Amino acid sequence: MASAATAFGRPLPPAAPVVHVLSDSDDGAPELPASSAAAAPCRAAQLLVGMGFAAGAAAQAAGAARARLGGGADSALVVAAALDALQAQRRSPQRPGAASPRGKRAASPGPRGPPPGRSPRGPGGLCRAAAQQVLPPGLVERVRPAFESRGSRDQPWVHVRNVDGREGRLVASLVFQALQGALGEGFCARLKRRRRTRDGIISDHRHPEWHTSPRLSVLQDLASQLLAYLSAPPAEGSAPAVPRGVLSRLREPRRQWNDTEVLIYNPGCRVKRHHDAQPPGSLLLVFSAGLSGSGHAWPHGQLVESVMQSGDVVIMDGKRTEHAIPDVLEGTSPFRPDEWLGNRRLAVLVREAPP
After folding, report:
1. Which portions of the sequence form the region Disordered (predicted)?
2. What is the pTM of this model?
3. 242 class by beta-carbon count within 10 Å (0-12 exposed, 13-18 middle, 19+ buried)
4. Nearest by Cα to 294 from 279, 314, 278, 275
5. Cα separations (Å) of 305 from 51, 147, 167, 316, 349?
6. Angle at the Cα of 89 from the Cα atoms of 87 and 90, rounded to 5 degrees
């Protein structure tokens, strides 16, 4: 595991800048009225252009997505659908620039990477990621992910499935962007590739505020959205989906977040049964992407087994509840082999500051 003064094998100064998740307004485009019929595709096209896609391709994809989703769809859903369509075009067998059926040369839908099945040059390889993406406001409420919960107020355990609605693709892209911004474009080439090994950016346990180096804040906005979704009152007439004790813990006043920790596991890597070093009383949200991991947790000493698939989140008190990862399961990633998580597991730890 990387020390507090290094990240993926690279020495770093202790005061690196904080990396923020992009919001829906970070691209500088003018705000559009949500009630306008043209607002969603227009706003979506602006965001897609900000990600590096050609204006014509972005406008066409946004318009088609709006037509499929209907008039009630907002810009966030239109962006997600249009982005999936543009990336599907990029993966299509047709070579960018080849003649189209009408005799015109087809425009590339966005930045080009290496062809499927081939890794980019460089000692690390497997460093390809999706185009730049943003975290839509209110995403979790629209996705409405399934979840199961048990435990108590002091030792909650919640397993949320497919939090971004895209099998972890949005989670992975946001983290890749944050790591690239903090560590430089070559960070991926420094990742270990040996089986049963891992890399990471972890908290400095000697720091009074548990800072990381570089300091990361990625996925904290998504964690806040998820806690708000889980703690919302159930629909009238329906039974509570979360046990009362767990719900009371989730509804406690929100605190600040510690710096985000990032761990990247290779197949076969194991994490033994343990307690975290951070003080008790803080919720820990573990976001997963890439390869699945078999998970064990022991709230109040009772074993709970689960498989954390790409896009899943597990919530618990990492100090009070023992937990382990018996195995990282090869061949379970939804990403292509030439993408950075095609044969790796990403775990992103977002933890409340101590009470």
Report:
1. 88-127
2. 0.69
3. buried
4. 314
5. 39, 14, 20, 14, 19
6. 65
